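PROTEIN FOLDING TASK:
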Amino acid sequence: GTTNLDAVDIDGAVNMAADLTMGANILMADDTSIGIADDAERIEFDGSGDISFLGCNVGIGTASVDELLHIESSTADKPVLLIENTHSGNSPAKIKFLKAGGTGADNDQMGEIAFYGQNSTDQLEEYARISSILTDVTNGNEDSNITLQTMKAGSMTTTLSLVSGDVGIQTASPTAPLTIEGDATYGDSSTFMQLDIQGATS
C-alpha cells in the first residue's frame, strides 16, 4: 500500500503487472542487459562503454521491421540520415562497406546501394544500383571496380563503369582509359565537341 519510498533494495526477480513510470535515470551495471531474456532480444551494456542491440531488428518510425535497421517516415523529404563530422581538420565523415569473413576471393562483392520504387502496377522494382567488386585480390596487385546501373526497358543496364583506372560508358569492360560502346551524340547540329586524342584509337 505504500506509494512513496525513498529507496528499495530488491534481491531477486520482479514481475510487473502494470506500467512502471520512472522520474529519474535508470542506471545499468556493466555487462547487464534489458530485454526478453539474456540470450534473446535485448539491449546489452558492457564494461567498455558499448551498447549493443542483440537478437533483434531495430525499427525507427515503424513497428513492422524488415531489416537489421529499418527507418520509416511519412513526412515529405524524410527520413534523412545525417552523418556529421565536427573535427577542425580536413578529414571527412565516412560510410564504410566492409566485406569480411576469411580470405578474400576474386569477384567478391564489396558493397551495393540499391534504389527501389513502385511501377505502374504497384510492384516493387529496383530501378538503379551502384555496386563495387573486388576483381583481383592478389596481394600487391589488387583491382576493383565500381558500376552504376540503371533500368532500361525493364532490364538493369550498365550505364557507367570504373574498372581499375579505366572508364566505360554502357560497357562493364572498358579496354582503355575511356571506352564508349554504341553511338555518341553531343548537343545539336550547331554544337561541336573537340577531342584531343593522345595515343592509339580503335
